[in-house]
Structures are given as C-alpha cells and as structure tokens.
Design goal:
single chain, mainly alpha, 2 domains, 3 helices
C-alpha cells in the first residue's frame, strides 16, 4: 500500500499520517487479541481446576464405595447400573447424547 503511494508521488506528510493511523489501528487490534488470549488462558485454567476437582470427587466416591460392606456395595453397584440404563433410555428417546 505504501509502495503504491510512493509510486504515485503522494506527499510524504499524507503518507506519514496514514502510517500513524494504521499503527494506531494495529495497536488497538493487538490489544484486543491480547485480551482474547488472556480470557482463553483464564478459561483453560478454570477448566483444569474443575477437572482436578472432578477427579478428586471421583476418587473420594470410589474410596467410600470401597469402605462399604459387601452387601451395601452390591446394592450401590446395582443402583448405579440401573441409573445408567435409565439415562441411556432417556438419551435414546430424546436423541441426545449426555455424558
């Protein structure tokens, strides 16, 4: 763009003014991209924290199940299996997959 203007013999002050305007625009866009990147990093950190908490909760649940007496553990397993079957049936009826 600037080369075209030099070839067209445009005045130097006009080119400097255009260059300054482009620099300001580029700086604003760079700041906007930086904010977006920071937001993305923040969300990724939040997801990581939540993943760790879910893993911790899963471990706590597994430990509690292991501490149950065998009859209670079997009953829990049956309820869990039944719950998964109901969930799959509901998903099949709704045509939606739920994790």
């Amino acid at each position: 763009m600037m080369i075209d203007r030099v070839n067209m013999n445009q005045e130097l002050p006009d080119m400097v003014e255009d260059l300054d305007a482009l620099k300001i625009k580029n700086d604003k866009e760079a700041e906007s991209l930086e904010r977006i990147f920071e937001q993305k990093e923040s969300k990724e950190k939040q997801i990581e924290v939540l993943d760790r908490e879910m893993s911790r909760q899963k471990t706590l649940t597994e430990n509690r199940v292991q501490d149950m007496d065998p009859d209670m553990r079997q009953h829990y397993s049956n309820l869990k299996r039944d719950g998964l079957q109901v969930k799959q049936s509901c998903n099949g009826l709704a045509g939606v997959s739920v994790l």
